[in-house]
Amino acid sequence: MPSTAPDVLLTDAGLVRPASVAAGIAPGPAVASRPRRRKTDLWPYLYVLPVLAVFGVFLLVPLVQGIWYSFTSWDGIGPAPWAGLSNYISIWTNPVMREGLANTGVLVLFYAGAPIVAGLFTAALIGRRGMRGMGFYRTVLFLPQVLSSVVVIVIWRLLLAPAGPVNQSLGAMGLGFLRADWLGSFSITLDVLGLIGSWVAFGFCMLLFLAGIQAIPTELYDAAKVDGASPVREFFAVTLPGLRGQMAVAMTLSVIGAFQAFDIIWLVTQGGPGTSSVTPAINLYNDAFVSQNVGAAAAMGVVMLGASLVVTLVIVRLVEGRRNA
Fold this sequence. Notes:
3-stranded antiparallel beta sheet; MetI-like fold; 65% helix; single chain; mainly alpha
């Protein structure tokens, strides 16, 4: 029985057409052929392979080794005998370790809370369009962020010395009763160091919020003005919701910076006087390089890493929850 199906031809475009097209007969509708299944292309993976190799060698391998050493009593040189959970238990039972964790809670208020609040307020003041000298204000207020830790400490040690400008100014204003040994007191040294950290982190938060304010559509501000919103109402109704993403970034980096606070405190007090300004990072340094207890230092590093991850996940979850609400 002869076939009734017309002859077909495969065109260059991958379309199946009746053979009558070649004979000059009016063509029928084109029928798209199924695309051929392509084999997996490995070239993109080869391009990123060097980056993955560097990432694995310099990050993943030390991370795994650090977690392993946290379960040992290694001194950094000889064998690493198994210690189980003793290093982690000592973090919660050692009074110095507990004090360092408690001091971190205080530093979070100075490293995260104060710079974010001050940065929001300052960005709202100088971020309004048409204000003169905004570039100058940005440069001056961001300057502490680009200074090295050594320069920052030299400046503040001169200012807060017992016979320094701060105490002399207080005496000249008749407030001599407020003079104190700002960097040598058991009760206020940690707070003073926190204020120094706030001064350093303030510029970053302000610049981040300024960039966010400039990205907010001007139509929202125009609509708020038409509705008769005051500057304060405009801030809470337009500016603050528009800076939700920047606030999440600033809060995450600031809190992690509080957990890892080391350079400023070490250069000024080395955790003193006594242990009043000790932090987890200083305890980690002392365990690793003073007491040669690398296992305990590794355990503290793992705890700091876990705390940073938890804080990051909580902040991201809160921001995403409010954005979807």
